[in-house]
Write a structure and sequence with these properties.
This protein is an alpha/beta fold and about 220 residues long. It has helices at about 20-25, 40-50, 75-85, 115-125, 145-155, 175-180, 190-195, 205-220, and strands spanning about 1-5, 30-35, 55, 60-65, 70, 105-110, 130-135, 140, 165-170, 185, 200. The radius of gyration is 17 Å and the shape is globular. The model has no long low-confidence stretch (mean pLDDT about 95).
């Protein structure tokens, strides 16, 4: 199972929902966290949740295969150059908190501008980046990587096919992962676009929605 964190296991304040923790601890299959968060944040969450140290961070830009093995797949210099170029036309503001200094592959900006216009302009300029809105922040990321490419590499590491994974998320940053997985489910607060490509949409939001999805999958024989 490949699972997003913010907005899927947590609420919009990034507080872990008790229902998601209870559902997670009852699972009998490995859970691979897949997030836009940093490697160090993802590792900490994996420890607290009891999930493997195999996870996808920074929207596929950084992969962890074990506690001591990390792979960086994206080039942050491309994102920095794109940020500088787009800042000439848009009033972009980076998040400057200390936790964002631990990012290896992308640039995070505050969502206080015309996002569709920025996306169009980045494509027109062919800057080699993708603009991703996770509902918590806007990521300027290397367009060569995403949660889907991350899932493929993690699956290879685990000697699995990506279609053997169930993917659970809430935003369009999860769409590439959904495209690779064999079963796709979104929580009730998910973006309309993600719900459209889901095999199951929870009635409940956030972590309670995740727990609902787990119950549904068990009932359908998709999980032991």
């Amino acid at each position: 199972m490949a699972v997003d964190i913010d907005g899927t296991l947590t609420d919009m304040n990034r507080v872990l929902c008790p229902a998601s923790l209870q559902a997670m601890r009852g699972l009998k299959v490995p859970v691979i966290l897949s997030t836009g968060n940093t490697h160090c944040f993802s590792r900490t969450v994996s420890i607290l949740l009891g999930t493997p140290r195999i996870f996808i961070a920074e929207n596929g830009g950084v992969l962890s295969y074990s506690d001591g093995v990390m792979e960086v797949l994206a080039d942050q210099r491309i994102c920095e150059a794109a940020f500088q170029r787009l800042s000439e036309e848009f009033a972009l503001k980076k998040y400057e908190s200390s936790r964002h200094k631990y990012r290896f592959t992308d640039v995070i900006v505050k969502n206080d501008f015309d996002l569709p216009a920025l996306v169009r302009r980045a494509e027109e300029l062919e800057l080699g980046v993708e603009i991703v809105d996770s509902a918590f922040a806007v990521h300027i990321k290397d367009r060569r990587v995403n949660k889907g490419t991350g899932l493929v590499r993690v699956a290879q590491h685990m000697n699995l096919d990506p279609v053997e994974f169930a993917a659970i998320g809430d935003s369009m940053s999860d769409q590439p992962m959904f495209a690779r997985a064999g079963f796709r489910a979104s929580v009730g607060n998910a973006s309309p676009g993600l719900k459209e490509i889901s095999d199951y949409v929870a009635k409940k939001d956030f972590g309670e929605g995740f727990a609902e999805i787990v119950d549904y999958m068990i009932g359908e024989g998709l999980l032991p």
